[in-house]
Specification:
By secondary structure, the chain is of the alpha/beta class. It contains 14 helices and 15 strands. The strands form 4 sheets. A 7-stranded mixed sheet has the order 2-10-9-8-5-3-4, sandwiched between helices. Helix 4 (about 85-95) links the parallel strand 3 (about 80-85) and strand 4 (about 100-105). Helix 11 runs antiparallel to helix 14 and helix 13 packs antiparallel against helix 14 (about 370-375). The model has no long low-confidence stretch (mean pLDDT about 95). The structure holds pyridoxal-5'-phosphate. Pyridoxal-5'-phosphate binds near residues 61, 88 and 188. Pyridoxal-5'-phosphate binds near residues 62, 63, 135, 139 and 165.
Length: about 375
């Protein structure tokens, strides 16, 4: 059976306009049409992030964007603080270690979020670190970290460069790097940005660009200053061949999000996540994130107590619904479903109804899960 509903947290189900835009005839990447396309994307990204300055676009996945952040800033002799609450936080740490820099690891229980105090204490107890790295939306546990509050809790004079992995947050929820005090933000095309996989994006604060003065990046293709120079030229370009079709798709996706209005867009994701959570809990599933404030609006992770989680995912697949399982130590005990696109009540019913069937819950159900979900969905804002 072909996948009818792609619920994995990247890649995600895409609007038809985005897919069509990606199928347009190619243009050369050294022609005015490409410069225009690039400029239009930059403007929209700046509007989405409410931030000034270039957003560097790399032909890579999200991991490439994170690697780009690490190799431009870190080297042997540097120290960084890594706060992780899941698989992706651990990966970011691993990437940074490859530069030869020394890491100070702070680990938060999977399913819980990082508190401002944890971050503030980490900085206070470890002076002299160049970078503090943290994940905005930890996709492996479906937990969102309060980045704005975390940064605000660190006195400005002591602040290392704040690196944020925003791979699964940007586009779906508020992420305003300039306003919040993020120094380097990395993201990717295939999650909240509703574009096919293949683009990594990196934004830097003025402080971060200054920190790169005089530094030579050991990676040529990930050299942020080289990308910036070409992007800020009279005819904005990429230093080397960019995946033009993906640029077309990204332009269409950003238009879709911005035309709807970011506040409305972010709120609709929150509402969908809350209604989904209510329906899942009424069915007897356990959300991994116990604290409601910590629950992601882009992805939901839950356990199936007393049942075979992987068997449920298999049955869903047979129905045409592709979900993600757990990662790392959560392998085999978690179902994760993404909701990055503009889905509404009908799609929510498809997902809940399919899970009801796949998990064989007809005999055990005590609550009307659709009514529970509808009550949340239908609540006046
Ligand atoms: C998906 C994801 C990544 C890795 O992205 P790839 O595109 O698979 O390389 C990194 N961090 C987070 C938070 C993610 O969700």
């Amino acid at each position: 059976m072909n996948t009818k509903y792609l619920l994995t947290p990247g890649p995600v189900e895409l609007p038809a306009e985005v897919l069509r835009a990606g199928a347009r005839p190619l243009i050369g990447h050294r022609c005015p049409a490409f410069s225009e396309l690039f400029t239009s994307i930059e403007k929209m990204l700046q509007e989405l992030l409410k931030s000034e300055g270039p957003v560097i676009i790399l032909p890579s996945s999200g991991t490439g964007a994170l690697e780009c952040m690490a190799v431009n800033f870190l080297e042997k002799g540097d120290k960084f603080i890594s706060i992780s609450c899941g698989v992706f936080g651990n990966r970011f740490r691993e990437i940074a270690l490859r530069t030869g820099a020394e890491g100070i690891n702070i680990d938060v229980e999977f399913g819980e979020s990082v508190t401002p105090k944890i971050a503030a204490d980490a900085v206070k107890n470890n002076p002299g670190c160049k970078v503090l790295m943290i994940t905005h939306n930890e996709t492996s546990t479906a937990v969102v970290n309060p980045i704005k509050e975390i940064i605000a809790a660190i006195p400005e004079k002591d602040r290392p460069l704040i690196f944020v992995d925003g791979v699964s947050s940007v586009g779906a929820m508020e992420c305003f790097p300039q306003e919040w005090g993020i120094d380097v933000l990395g993201t990717a095309s295939q999650k909240g940005l509703l574009t096919p996989p293949g683009l990594g994006l990196v934004w830097l604060s003025e402080k971060a660009w200054k920190a790169l003065d005089g530094k030579i990046c050991p990676s040529y293709s990930y050299d942020l200053k080289l990308h910036k120079k070409e992007l800020e030229a009279k005819s904005p370009a990429n230093p080397f061949t960019p995946p033009v079709s993906l640029y077309y798709a990204l332009e269409a996706a950003l238009s879709e999000i911005l035309e709807r209005g970011t506040d409305i867009w972010f709120n609709s994701h929150r509402k969908y996540a809350d209604a989904l959570a209510a329906g899942l809990e009424a069915m007897g599933f356990d959300l991994l994130a116990k604290n409601k404030e910590a629950r992601s609006s882009g992805v939901t992770a839950f356990k199936y107590p007393g049942g075979d989680t992987e068997a449920v995912r298999k049955k869903l697949r047979a129905m045409g619904i592709e979900t993600a399982g757990g990662q790392g130590k959560l392998k085999g005990i978690l179902i994760r479903v993404a909701h990055y696109n503009n889905w509404g009540w009908p799609e929510l019913c498809i997902i809940l109804g399919s899970l009801y069937g796949a998990a064989g819950m007809a005999q055990t159900l005590k609550k009307d899960f659709l009514a529970e979900a509808w009550n949340v969905w239908n609540k006046e804002d």
